[in-house]
Amino acid sequence: MKKVITYGTYDLLHEGHINLLRRAKALGDYLIVGVTNDSFDRERGKLNVRNNVMERVERVKATGFVDQIVIEDYIGQKIDDIIKYDVDIFAIGSDWEGKFDYLKEYCKVVYLPRTEGISSTMLRSENETVVNIGVVGCGRIAKRLVAETSKVDAARVSALYDIVPTAAEALAKDKSLVCASFEELVERVDAVYIATPHLAHYDQAKYALEHHRHVLCETPMVLREEQAEELYRIAQANNLVLLEANKTAFCPAFNHLITLIKSGLIGDVVGIDASESKLWGEEKLKRELNPNEAGGSLYEMGSYPLLPILRLLGTEYEDVTLYSRLNDNGVDIYTRGIIRYRNAVASFQLGLGVKTEGNLIISGTKGYAYVPSPWWKTDYFELRYEDQNMNKKYFYKWDEPGLRYELQEFVSCIINKRYNSARMRQKESITMARIMQQFAQRKSVFEL
Ligand code: CTP
Predict the structure, then answer these.
(1) Strands (DSSP E) along 179-331, which ranges?
(2) Mutate to test the pocket of ligand 1, among 120, 122, 123, 151 (most ligand atoms within 8 A of CB)
(3) pTM
(4) Prior bond of 220 cis (ω within 30°)
(5) Is the pLDDT of residue 342 over 80?
(6) Rounded CA gap, 433 and 221, in Å?
(7) Å from CA of 17 to ligand 1 middle
(8) Cα(155) to centroid of ligand 1, in Å?
(9) Distance in Å, CA 400 to ligand 1 centroid
(10) Do 355 and 322 touch, CB atoms closer than 8 A?
(11) Ligand 1 atom closest to the CA of 96, numbered from 1
């Protein structure tokens, strides 16, 4: 029996795929098809795949040419599969001509003619709902997000506004995208990305939501619990997406870490320690240390360590105690927080003018997770145990600047009418605001 194997994503299964599968089957007696899994596609930069792996498998099966399906989830699997299934022929479309010659050592390699004029990419763009996004606050972070829109098919920056017009002009592909006011920007778009200083977020998000625009708001979204609750209430009542743009929350590697821990790989989580610090000098940290712009280490960076803590231990803590060193302007250059839960405790350290090791450690009853600095751009972590033979290292790719994932989730929530993202839950965002508020009110805050 002659065995043939081929691989693909097979998104929005089309005539080109069907022709290829027919030709591949005709090369032998038994056809194995490797369908890429969702996370492997994301790692390869294919963020826009529409059908999930189960749907894609079902459609490939339904063509009737396939005898066996395998899921492809790592680089190098092709060689393993060819050996494991004793494959005679590897077949693939001619768009890959030459790319798989290295497999000739293991089996025959055949490049089949590709069907002209059709591809999944083409179909995706044909029936794509484009989300027109207006960017308000055209500084450092907005610049990065605008660059990332090229990675997300459905996202288009169609308006920009900044109180300094030249800042908006610098980011605009053409001048017609620059708006004269925030109100004009809201008028022109489906969704607003807010990247202004913290204190402007609440009014701008509220205005945009009240004018029926979806909102992606930089972190910290707001600094008061009732403001966060109010914004989510307005969003909910109007079927709008409101998402806090905490980049770590959407990062695939961070989410994999969370799913491994939730699956019990280190037992019950009993303690979490997370830190982040910047020692850039006062000149460079001017805005970050400005008391009139809600500067300080907790406001500036607090939502990052709070994310793994609230995701793993929940939002129902017993109490939070904060220890801060303030500078002459009353801004915290260092804050250490202790969050007490009934069965666990978490702590974090934040420094803007104090340096500390920026890692994340999650301690459990069976082992612990170690994520080295910069853990908020997770690309590597280890699960460690008493028996060191059980230790395992996990490696990923971090796609600088890492904002494509939040953007993808935002437009996907809008297109699919999902009003609560599992990546950044409303409850978590509200709790972050509650802790910021507690700090502002100096409740259980000890000055050092
Ligand atoms: N294929 C083909 N003819 C087409 C499109 C794809 O023969 N018009 C083949 C590819 O060469 C590959 C298989 O179908 O062997 C699966 O390819 P896949 O990447 O899933 O399909 P594309 O439509 O090319 O997807 P994309 O646009 O996302 O790259």
Answers:
(1) 191-194, 214-218, 242-245, 269-278, 319-326
(2) 120
(3) 0.85
(4) yes
(5) yes
(6) 8
(7) 6
(8) 23
(9) 27
(10) no
(11) 11
Can you tell me the distance from the alpha carbon of 424 to that of 409, in angstroms, rounded to the nearest whole number? 10
- Is the CB of 68 inside a 6 Å radius of any atom of ligand 1? no
Contact 17 CB / ligand 1 (< 6 Å): yes
What is the crossing angle of helices 140-148 and 404-415, to 10°?
60
Summarised one tens digit per residue, pLDDT across range 351-381 is 998 999 999 999 999 999 999 999 999 999 9
Q: Ligand 1: which atom is nearest the Cα of residue 17? A: 14
Instruction: Give the Å distances, CA to CA, from 14 to 20, 21, 30, 63, 117.
Output: 10, 11, 22, 10, 11
Mean pLDDT taken over the chain? 95
Amino acid letter, 324: S
Ligand 1 pocket member 120 (CB < 6 A): yes
Residue of 6, 7, 9 to test ligand 1 pocket, by largest number of atoms within 8 Å of CB:
9
Residue nearest to atom 25 of ligand 1 (CA): 120
Phi-psi region at 114: left, alpha or beta (left = phi > 0; alpha = psi -120 to 50): beta
36 CA from centroid of ligand 1 (Å)? 12
What pLDDT was estimated at residue 287?
80
Which domains occur in the chain, in start order? Answer: 3-123 (3.40.50.620), 127-247 (3.40.50.720), 252-397 (3.30.360.10)
248 vs 253: CA distance, rounded Å: 9
Which is nearest to 12 in space by CA: 52, 69, 39, 41? Answer: 52
Closest ligand 1 atom number to CA of residue 36: 20
Q: Is the CB of 34 under 6 A from ligand 1?
A: no
Q: Choose between 284 and 346: higher pLDDT.
A: 346
Contact between residue 348 and residue 274 where contact means Cβ atoms under 8 Å apart: yes
* Burial 299-310, CB ≥16 within 10 A → b, else e: bbbbbbbbbbbb
Lookup: tokens for 379? 């690309």
Q: Is the CB of 115 under 6 A from ligand 1?
A: yes
Do the Cβ atoms of 16 and 118 come closer than 8 Å?
yes
Whether 114 lines ligand 1, by a CB cut-off of 6 Å, is yes
Buried/exposed code over 353-383 (b: 16+ C-beta within 10 A; e: otherwise) = bbeeebbbbbbbeebbbbbeeebbbbbebeb
